[in-house]
Amino acid sequence: MRRREFLGLGLAGSLTLLAGCGTAKGAAYVDGKLSMAVISTYGTGTSTYADVAAVANALADEADIRTRIMTSDTAIGRMTPLRQGLATFARTGDEYIFALEATNEFLAREWGPQSTRLVWGPVAPHGLLVRQDSGIETLTDLAGKRLPDVTANPSVNGKIEMALAGAGLSRDDVELVPISYGEQAEGLKQGKIDMLFQQVYGASLYELESSNPVQWVKMDQNDQALLDAIQKINPSLTLGPFSGAPGQEEGQEDIGFIYSIPIITYDTTDKATVQEYSQAIVDAFPRYKNATKVTPDWHYEKAVTFPQQVPFHEGLIAVLEGIDMWSPEAQAKQDELLEREKKLKAGWKSIIDDTSDADLKQVWLDWKAQNLG
What is the pLDDT of residue 234? Predict the structure, then answer.
């Protein structure tokens, strides 16, 4: 009988436990085959964690690959175990893009451009949730309201900024409340914030709905101002419908932000490890497809199979070639992204030694504007 095992761990505890495992990049092998992988991701109350846990169980059954899950509420907290070799993979927000581009928290001397690679790209709907008595119906109604300034989470904060821009607003037009990603549901319940931003099927949101009537901020899929803001701030994102979330009646649809919450790794992770894990995700789909509201979107026909802002790992490309989901156009985009990465690393190397910490941000952004457009 095959083993079923996944272990959810807080970040601090995981670092201590896994440091003594003696595995490369958090992985273990039996007879040359992958038998255990470590993945960092969002906290236990999120839909993202629930998806990872469901897929982990399926991989144990299908491929005898166990998955240990490390959790963190912050972008740096999800990326650091991967960078330090304590995790094999990470399921992240946009920090995999920020790390490659050396922006936001990753625009720091100890980081710089990181060679992140996509391992699997499932998409998921995200939205802006409010209490029904908030008086907030549309994006315009957010003016003057208390919105989350999510601690160490530029991915979420950037999307809130994008939503505001779609209504002709900015961060200056709202009251920003510092709060962690996982505290948003409780913050909305207690009246500390008037809106939260999350993947729409998080367990904490269903718990919130049980005691507080909630609704999703209305967005129009054809709103040109919002589409323009998306193109400017986050071109990997699209608008699309979702249903069955907290605050929705049966059959009700709302429009949310649809984008990939991918599994990623570094380019140094060996091809065989990534290929085995990605192939197992494909093969185990029938086992986990109905596990959560989002796992149907892990199927390769719905997941991201065309490079967007970060290169694909060669192990993933091998899997996509095997299911006829890799095209010459995808390879051309892959080559374009790899060339950009080379320029980013060369540019960082050219400025880092002669630039002070105080000037680093501006010097780097100026270099990118002048050399990458």
Answer: 85
pLDDT tens, residue by residue, 10-44: 333 333 333 333 344 789 999 999 999 999 999 99
The per-residue pLDDT for range 321-354, each reduced to its tens digit, is: 999 999 999 999 999 999 999 999 999 999 999 9
Q: Is the dihedral of CA 126, 154, 271, 16 positive or negative?
A: negative
- Which residues touch 353 (CB under 8 Å, ≥6 apart)? none
Look up residue 24 and give its amino acid.
A
Task: Count the neighbouring beta carbons within 10 Å of the beta carbon of residue 349.
Answer: 11
Whole-number pLDDT of residue 18? 37
Q: Which residues pair with 38 in a beta bridge?
A: 68
Q: What's phi and psi for 30, nearest 5 deg?
A: -125, 120
Strand residues in 92-184 grouped as ranges (E) = 116-120, 123-131, 146-150, 175-179
Instruction: Give the integer Cα–Cα distance in Å for 70 and 12.
Output: 9
Q: How far is CA 292 from the centre of its chain?
A: 17
179 within 8 A of 204, measured Cβ to Cβ? no
* Four-CA torsion 158, 159, 163, 166, nearest 10 degrees: 70
CA distance 227 to 189: 30
Long-range contacts of 96-102 (CB under 8 A, 24+ apart): 96/262, 96/264, 96/310, 97/236, 97/309, 97/310, 98/154, 98/155, 100/309, 100/310, 100/341, 100/344, 101/309, 101/344, 101/368, 102/344, 102/348, 102/364
- What's the distance, CA 363 to chain centroid? 28
Contact 25, 269 (CB under 8 A): yes
